[in-house]
């Protein structure tokens, strides 16, 4: 078991560059005991550790046979080290696979300086082949572990006397007992630390609860000073007062904030065990009907079937009416939040069970709650749908408070599957107060319009915004006044915030609104707005998903996007900007700041469009110039040379030359018309009225006279950019036809905006003719009209000429916008 030859190593510092490792040095310095043999079992390399373990030198073993270096101990007739190792190496050469050997007694020679002879050693060997490209064994790596100490220790252990073993066992018992004592001490210390941490956690929880309580009390005072004066001012305003809507928004959201504050206060009281019940003798059926009555209008407004089922007879109960009302209001609010339009909500009082408990069920036809997540629904500050696309807001306290209030009564609140298809909340309340409790008799009150605080500011007769994305009537009128102002799309699911944003932008822009992310994306594709303002958290599609969708849509991918959010964390801001949003505005914000950011983004877009238009204009000019300089002049020169041949050629040839010259003149005319179209196309980015005038002026030179242009109605206000581009394309085609075919001395262009958007082009030329089939240009003009729900007609004009009439219904034009 020895080592392989190694060329002398250059240990001079810097002898080998760091980028070229000295693999021989690495092998020889390896901590394991390794010997490398060739197929003839000659030693060619050995690790330093191997040489040390076998008490040999590299120069003495490299280049010699392994059994020459390591023979059997002649003083041990029972040794089989050479035979066993030889058999293992033979198997490796034959099978070309590794071979693990059992522990071997293989004595090594002691150096002469140490007295010579052999030294007893035990080894655990493993032999592994190194295969060449052809699959043959090129080397054998012989690895060993020196287990001599272990074997000798085992022998000594076996020869110990029984008393020694017993002594050792006793010592082991003592040692283990000491270890157990140490572990017990450490466990006690850990328990003390845990107790201290638990106490600290309880203290922090108490501080947090006290903080919530203090903050809630502090918020209720300014809220009272907001709600009281605002309600008095609203009562004094006339129904048609323009400030009434803004005041209603203030009251609605102040009540919503008050509801959240009350929830925090109730939670802090429950945690501190300070919430006490005031029991009253009452008819539970009457209480259920009274609470349910507050949701009748809501059910009607949301097209929800609302069923209230109670026993015909009274159901006497001793409960805290205010707290039971709070429970039922929370459960009904939750049901109405998730019940879809045309869905169902049911509240049913089942009567008193044999256990003396009244059973109340609240079911809905919403999405329901999975069985494995029902316990989560009652956790504080927890919402089952916490994603950015969640459809419902809230603090996550309503159901937690409801269950705690039911528990204070000694009852239970559970969740099950409703027959209606959604979630079923089952309340079981004892109808008798605990012994010794004071129970009073008297009436009960229900909060006025409780849904205002439970359903995110709902009011029974809301100014319900059109959730199809269309504008309100007053905003549409304002758009018409602003003519060709830039279009901004607002995507915000909260109706009040949606209106607030739209009001801020309406002063400078045309505005359309959507109430969820997917609706916003669809409107963006249809309208191609100049700016998108979207909320970060929206139903169906979050703000960040909206950004991704817009950036993936080729027609609108360059649209600037401003994201609004109440989340004040850098990670969300970085994520939305990385996805492609242009700016990010934190709520709450001031209207002037929103308008300033919108102005900046739109100005950048305008600058980009102007730069692109300038580049396109330069390209059009270059193409027109090349057509004129490189094509028209050459074709004209060819025609002149052919015309010069007419007097000197036979009549038949002259007639053919005249036809060729006429065809060349027609080619020149067509090229000039193309130049006209290129130059006229640049006018599409201007207002429709000025673009029509520019097209007529561009046709002046080719016609030899100036077309007369007439306008009727608010042309620039009515026509959207896309519709205007279609109309200008039809006008260009019509004027090109007049230039090429009409031989006219006058042209009239009339553009009218009334019930329809109508373009009429008439001339006094040769007329359309009876037999001519419509060409590509005429078919294209008709197709453009049909795509917008309109019509196209070309007919003869009396007494002479042609009349082209192109109509688009005004309602369709607006819808296409």
Description:
- By secondary structure, the chain is an alpha/beta fold.
- The protein is 48% helix and 18% strand.
- The protein has 25 helices and 26 strands.
- Strands 1, 2, 3, 4, 7 and 8 form a six-stranded antiparallel sheet that branches. Strands 10-12-13-15-14 form a five-stranded mixed sheet.
- Helix 11 runs antiparallel to helix 12 (398-408), helix 15 crosses helix 19 (591-644) and helix 20 runs antiparallel to helix 21.
Helix content: 40-55%
**For the report, how would you describe the main beta sheet?**
6 strands, antiparallel
- Helices and strands: which structural class? alpha/beta
Q: How widely separated are the two ends?
A: 90 Å
Low-confidence stretches: 1-9, 11-16, 385-391, 456-477, 681-685, 812-817
- In total, the number of strands is 26
Give the percentage of residues in beta strands. 15-25%
Total helical segments: 25
| Dominant shape | flat
Summarize the structure.
The chain has 817 residues and is α/β, with parallel strands linked by helices.
């Amino acid at each position: 078991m020895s080592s392989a030859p190694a060329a002398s190593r250059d240990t001079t510092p810097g002898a080998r560059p760091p980028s070229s490792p000295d693999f021989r040095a690495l092998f020889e310095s390896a901590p394991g005991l390794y010997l490398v043999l060739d197929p003839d079992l000659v030693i060619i390399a050995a690790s330093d550790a191997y040489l040390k373990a076998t008490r040999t030198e590299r120069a003495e073993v490299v280049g010699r046979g392994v059994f020459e270096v390591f023979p059997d101990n002649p003083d041990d007739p029972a040794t089989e080290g050479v035979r066993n190792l030889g058999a293992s190496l033979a198997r490796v050469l034959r099978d070309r696979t590794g071979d693990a050997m059992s522990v071997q007694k293989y004595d090594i020679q002691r150096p002469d300086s140490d007295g010579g002879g052999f030294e007893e050693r035990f080894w655990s060997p493993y032999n592994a082949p190194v295969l060449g490209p052809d699959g043959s064994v090129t080397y054998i790596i012989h690895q060993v572990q020196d287990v001599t100490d272990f074997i000798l220790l085992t022998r000594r252990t076996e020869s110990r006397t029984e008393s020694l073993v017993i002594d050792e066992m006793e010592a082991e018992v003592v040692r283990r007992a000491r270890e157990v004592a140490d572990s017990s001490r450490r466990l006690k210390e850990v328990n003390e630390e845990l107790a201290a941490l638990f106490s600290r956690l309880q203290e922090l929880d108490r501080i947090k609860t006290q903080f919530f309580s203090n903050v809630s009390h502090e918020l209720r005072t300014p809220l009272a000073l907001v709600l009281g004066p605002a309600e008095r001012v609203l009562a004094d305003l006339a129904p048609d007062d323009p400030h009434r809507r803004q005041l209603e928004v203030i009251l609605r959201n102040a009540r919503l904030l008050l509801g959240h504050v009350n929830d925090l206060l109730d939670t802090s009281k429950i945690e501190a065990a300070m919430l006490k019940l005031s029991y009253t003798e009452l008819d539970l059926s009457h209480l259920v009907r009274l609470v349910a009555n507050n949701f009748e209008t809501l059910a009607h407004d949301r097209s929800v079937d609302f069923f209230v089922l109670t026993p015909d007879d009274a159901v006497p109960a001793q409960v805290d009416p205010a707290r039971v009302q709070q429970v039922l209001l929370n459960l009904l609010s939750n049901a109405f939040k998730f019940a879809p339009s045309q869905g169902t909500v049911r509240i049913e009082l089942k009567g008193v069970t044999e256990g003396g408990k009244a059973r109340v069920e609240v079911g809905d036809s919403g999405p329901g709650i999975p069985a494995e997540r029902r316990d989560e629904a009652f956790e504080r500050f927890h919402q089952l749908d916490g994603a950015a696309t969640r459809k419902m807001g809230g603090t996550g306290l309503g159901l937690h408070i409801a269950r705690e209030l039911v528990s204070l009564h000694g009852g239970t609140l559970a969740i099950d599957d409703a027959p209606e298809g959604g979630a079923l909340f089952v309340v079981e309340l004892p109808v008798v107060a605990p012994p010794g409790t004071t129970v009073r008799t008297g009436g009960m009150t229900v909060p006025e319009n409780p849904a205002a605080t439970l359903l995110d500011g709902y009011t029974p007769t809301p100014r319900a915004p059109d959730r199809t994305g269309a504008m309100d009537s007053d905003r549409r009128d304002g758009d018409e006044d602003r003519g060709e102002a830039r279009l901004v799309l607002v995507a915000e699911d909260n109706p009040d915030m949606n209106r607030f944003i739209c009001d801020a932008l309406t002063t400078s822009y045309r505005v359309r609104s959507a109430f969820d992310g997917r609706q916003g994306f669809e409107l963006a594709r249809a309208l191609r707005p100049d700016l998108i303002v979207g909320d970060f958290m929206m139903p169906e599609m979050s703000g960040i998903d909206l950004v991704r969708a817009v950036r993936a849509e080729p027609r609108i991918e360059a649209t600037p996007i401003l994201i609004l959010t109440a989340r004040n964390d850098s990670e969300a801001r970085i994520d939305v900007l990385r996805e492609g949003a242009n700016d990010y505005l934190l709520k709450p914000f001031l209207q002037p700041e929103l308008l300033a950011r919108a102005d900046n983004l739109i100005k950048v877009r305008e600058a980009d469009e102007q730069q692109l238009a300038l580049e396109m204009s330069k390209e059009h000019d270059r193409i027109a110039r090349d057509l004129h300089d490189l094509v028209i002049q050459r074709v004209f020169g060819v025609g002149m040379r052919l015309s010069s041949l007419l007097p000197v050629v036979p009549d038949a040839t002259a007639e053919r030359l005249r036809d060729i010259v006429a065809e060349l003149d027609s080619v020149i005319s067509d090229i000039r018309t193309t130049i006209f179209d290129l130059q006229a196309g640049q006018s599409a980015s201007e207002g429709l009225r000025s673009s029509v005038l520019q097209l007529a002026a561009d046709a002046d030179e080719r016609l030899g006279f100036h077309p007369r242009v007439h306008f009727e109605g608010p042309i620039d206000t009515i026509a959207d950019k896309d519709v205007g581009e279609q109309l200008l394309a039809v006008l260009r085609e019509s004027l090109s036809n007049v230039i090429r075919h009409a031989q006219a001395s006058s042209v009239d262009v009339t553009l009218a905006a009334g019930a329809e958007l109508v373009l009429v082009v008439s001339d006094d030329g040769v007329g359309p003719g009876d037999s001519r089939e419509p060409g590509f240009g005429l078919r294209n003009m008709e197709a453009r009209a049909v795509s917008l729900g309109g019509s196209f007609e070309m007919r003869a004009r009396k007494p002479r000429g042609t009349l082209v009439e192109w109509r688009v219904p005004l309602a369709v034009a607006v819808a296409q916008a």
